[in-house]
Amino acid sequence: MVNRKQMPRAIDTPEPCWLRVRMERHGPYLPARIFQRLGLLTAEIDGTACDVERAWTSGDRITEHEWLALIADRQRERPF
User: How far apart, in whole angstroms, are the C-alpha atoms of residue 39 and residue 49?
Assistant: First the structure.
C-alpha cells in the first residue's frame, strides 16, 4: 500500500526511488524504478528502459520490499 503521508515530491526534480506504475487505466501495477547509472538518472518500467519523466510523474513511490513483491507477481503471470 502506498504511504499517503509521505512528503510531497517536486515533479521537476526526479530522484532515485522504487515505484509502481499503471500503463493503462485500471491495468495491473507494474514495478518501476529510477536509479543512477554512470552518473545519470535512468528509469525502467517492468524491466524495460523508459523515460525518467514518465516513471517519475506517473508512478507511486513504494518500498523496495513492495517493489520486489511486484516483480515476483509479474514473473508468476508470465507463461514463459
Answer: 16
Grade residue 13 by pLDDT with cuts at 50, 70 and 90.
confident
| Confidence category of residue 79, pLDDT binned at 50, 70, 90 | low
Cα separation, 31 vs 44, whole angstroms: 8
DSSP-based three-state secondary structure for 57: helix
**Mean pLDDT, range 39-68, rounded to an integer:** 93
For 54, phi then psi, to 5°, come to: -60, -50
Mean pLDDT confidence for 65-73? 92
Residue that is written with C-alpha cell 518500498 in the block: 63
Q: Report the amino acid identity of residue 32.
A: A
Task: For CA atoms 36, 39, 43, 47, give the dihedral sign.
Answer: negative
Q: Name the region of 13 (left: φ>0; alpha: ψ -120 to 50; beta: rest).
A: beta
